[in-house]
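Quick one:
INPUT:
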C-alpha cells in the first residue's frame, strides 16, 4: 500500500513544476505581446502619416490597438502576479516552511519593474492619444 502523504507530495511537486513552466511561458508570451503592441501602434501611426485619410477617426487606430493589447497584457500579468503566484507561494510554504521560495520572496520586493512597465504603457498610450487628437500641421 502506498503512503497517501507521499502520493500527495509527489502530485504537488509535479503540479508545482508544471505551474512554474506555465508561468515562464506566459510571461514570455506577454512580453512578446508588449513588443507587438508598441511596434504595431508605431507602424499604424507611421502608415497613417504617409497616406491620405478619408476619415479623421482613422488616427484613433493606434490608440485602439494599444488599448486592446494593453487590456490583454494587464489581465495576463494580473493573473500571473496574483492568482498563479499566490497558489505557487502556498505550495512553497507547505514544502519549505513559512519563508517559502521564490514566489514568497518576490512578493516582498519593490515594484520597480511594475512601475517601469506601467510607465512604458502610459507613455505609449499618451502618445497614441496625442496622435489621435492633436492636429498634424
Amino acid at each position: 500500500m502506498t503512503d497517501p502523504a507521499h502520493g500527495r507530495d509527489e502530485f504537488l511537486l509535479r503540479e508545482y513544476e508544471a505551474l512554474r513552466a506555465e508561468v515562464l511561458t506566459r510571461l514570455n508570451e506577454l512580453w512578446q505581446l508588449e513588443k507587438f503592441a508598441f511596434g504595431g501602434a508605431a507602424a499604424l501611426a507611421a502608415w497613417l502619416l504617409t497616406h491620405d485619410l478619408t476619415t479623421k477617426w482613422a488616427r484613433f487606430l493606434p490608440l485602439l490597438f494599444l488599448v486592446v493589447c494593453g487590456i490583454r497584457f494587464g489581465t495576463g500579468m494580473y493573473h500571473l502576479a496574483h492568482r498563479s503566484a499566490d497558489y505557487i507561494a502556498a505550495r512553497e510554504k507547505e514544502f519549505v516552511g513559512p519563508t517559502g521560495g521564490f514566489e514568497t520572496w518576490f512578493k516582498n520586493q519593490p515594484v520597480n519593474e511594475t512601475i517601469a512597465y506601467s510607465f512604458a504603457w502610459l507613455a505609449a498610450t499618451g502618445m497614441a492619444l496625442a496622435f489621435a487628437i492633436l492636429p498634424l500641421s
